[in-house]
Amino acid sequence: MGRMEEIWGGDWMVFRPERWLSPDGSKNVHIPSYKFMTFAAGPRACLGKKITFVHAKQVASAVLCNYKVEVVEGHRVSPAVSIVLFMKDGLKVRVSRRK
């Protein structure tokens, strides 16, 4: 279902968060939760959804506590215009173990 062209359109493979906005961009378009099959919805929703988010936060905090993450010198950081914040040309970082 996550790749059905009838639901998501011909560009289903493209990361395009603005697809969830109304044509004028003023409000979110309602999309039923059953379309997001990663965790599903309703009475048969994934029992591990909440614990998955807890583990993701644990991994992120462990990485940030144990490693130093720095933007590569000379890399220009510029955001892309979108409903969610992401970098126009990616974010190049250097990861090194903390001392």
Any overview of this molecule?
By secondary structure, the chain is α+β, with helices and mostly antiparallel strands. The protein folds into two domains: 1-46, no CATH class; 47-99, no CATH class. It has helices at residues 5-8, 49-66, and strands at residues 67-71, 93-97. A two-stranded antiparallel ribbon has the order 1-2. The chain starts with a helix and ends with a strand. The mean pLDDT is 83.
- Helix/strand/pairing category: alpha+beta
Largest β-sheet summary = 2 strands, antiparallel
Question: Which runs of at least 5 residues are low in confidence (pLDDT < 50)?
Answer: none
Q: Order of strands side by side in the largest beta sheet? A: 1-2
Task: Record keyword descriptors for this entry.
flat, alpha+beta, 2 domains
Task: Show the helix and strand layout.
Layout: H1 5-8, H2 49-66, E1 67-71, E2 93-97
Antiparallel strand pairs: 1-2
Short note summarizing the structure:
The protein is of the alpha+beta class. The protein has helices at 5-8, 49-66; strands at 67-71, 93-97.
